[in-house]
Amino acid sequence: MLRTTLATICLALAPATAPSIPTSVDAYIEQYREATGLPGVAVAITRGAEVVHATGQGRSAVGDPITAETPMAVASVSKSFTALAIMQLAEKGKVILDQPARRYLPEFTMADPRSAKITIRQLLNQTSGMADSAFPEKSLPQPSTLEGAVARLRTAKLAADPGTTFSYHNTNYQVAARLVEVVSGQPFAGYLKANVFEPLGMRHSTTINTDRDLPGSARGHLYVLGQPVAVPEPTAFGNGSGGVLSTANDMARWLIAQNTDLLSPKAVREMRTPSEANQEYALGWTIGKTARGTRVVEHGGDLFTSTAHQLLMPDSGYGVAVMANTGMAFSDAHALMTGIVAILEGGSPQLPSTNHQFLIDALFTLLTLVNIGLAARGTLRARRWSARHTGWQLWRLVPYLIPLMLCLTLAPIHRVMAQGRDAMWIQLAYLYPTFMIWLVTAAAAGVIVIAARLWALAVGRTTGPDKSAPLRILRPTT
Fold it and tell me: Does 436 lie in the same domain as 320?
């Protein structure tokens, strides 16, 4: 405790933060938004016990101005809050990290005997053996409560022995949050409010269960042809793993708390100690370095319509949190974080180039228009086609089914390409919007052309030859 307090005092007595930092950060955010079209963003910067800057720019998905008091989704940054709740219980002697989670949460059962050995620590450092490849958490029916999130594991199996392999899997933190509920005797939202949010003065922060609980200010966008389009978040459950909502001012208080007596120094070190299976992922935080080699403790967060990122620089005492209302396909919060850190390190941030993404969108938009044109042409010429083909030549229509087959198998194909990470079909549409629009129109065009040609063949058999078809002149043979 003493060392943490001394470190805070030293930082507070350090030279005042350069007054140019808020100005530089605001200018960078404005330039970034102009370059990318980012609708809205909230940023908090702290140093030691000082709030250097807390601001909001732009508008929410419902058109309201974003300020430092606007609640936004922090997505998987929520894992740091869940890990803190567990560590608080551990410091009170209510749980032991290296004991099996089932000791405190008997309802946590799986169709795999190895699950009885999963410890609380393994849930937090993502080495429990649970993985998307064995339990497709996103594409299965979604629960509505933490109790339901644990109950649906009863038929699940593990992908690896507990403690041997790292696999980023949201269910780990949903189980951990449910454990907090059972051990504390409080709903998870109530526990965080009483033991984290209220003590830190985070008056506008909470945690929610599903996408249906997102307020308008926390909803987000996709980019299409460089323009933000407000869309609802796909159906999903996220409490414990990604359900926290917070503001720039509240996140500033959270960042400052990381330098004070929120936990004992021993518990803080434990939270920031990676596992042997992954030397970067600790307990709700990742360990890394900036481009200049500065040591950082951080965690990112991605929803399909918004992103967030938090970062601590222990050597300088800086902390940064960014929340952007565009989805994981665009990584705006992460890109902004990189630029802000560059400013804090005395460098110049680089603005992203959006030409590449715009050209891809333009290409698939053009191909979509081509699909529509080809479908119209194929339909109008169906009778002419039927006059030249007999029933046994229907195999010629099979290639038109390829886009439809790709539509139907896209999710498992993506799962293989993403090394087992799970995603529903609709979520892929959020990741690759213009590509999916093209693919769906291609599938529809193929089905329409096939239907038109089959109809023309059927009509031709009952009415005789198509008189609109061109006449074929037969030359006499010699």
Answer: no
Task: Compute the CA torsion angle 191, 196, 200, 206 (nearest 10 deg).
Answer: -70
> What residues contact 40, with CB distance under 8 A and at least 6 apart?
56, 57, 58, 59, 60, 66, 324, 325
Same domain for 375 and 433? yes
In a domain, 249, yes or no: yes
Question: Tokens 């990741």 appear where?
Answer: 431
75's torsion region: left (phi>0), alpha (psi -120 to 50) or beta? Answer: left
| Residue 470 falls inside a structural domain | no
473 domain residue, yes or no: no
SS3 7: helix
Instruction: Dig out the tokens for 277 from the structure.
Output: 């299976």
pLDDT in tens, the chain (478 residues): 333 333 443 433 333 345 699 999 999 999 999 999 999 999 999 999 999 999 999 999 999 999 999 999 999 999 999 999 999 999 999 999 999 999 999 999 999 999 999 999 999 999 999 999 999 999 899 999 999 999 999 999 999 999 999 999 999 999 999 999 999 999 999 999 999 999 999 999 999 999 999 999 999 999 999 899 999 999 999 999 999 999 999 999 999 999 876 899 999 999 999 999 999 999 999 999 998 999 999 999 999 999 999 999 999 999 999 999 999 999 999 999 999 999 999 999 999 877 788 899 999 999 999 999 999 999 998 888 888 876 666 778 899 999 999 999 988 888 888 877 888 889 999 999 999 999 999 999 999 999 998 898 888 766 555 444 454 444 544 4
Rounded Cα–Cα distance for residues 195 and 208 (Å): 16
Q: Which residues contact 68 (CB under 8 A, 6 or more apart)?
A: 42, 44, 54, 55, 56, 247, 248, 249
Same-domain pairing of 220 and 328: yes
Helix axis angle, 78-91 to 171-184, nearest 10°: 40
**Domain, as residue range, for 202:** 2-344
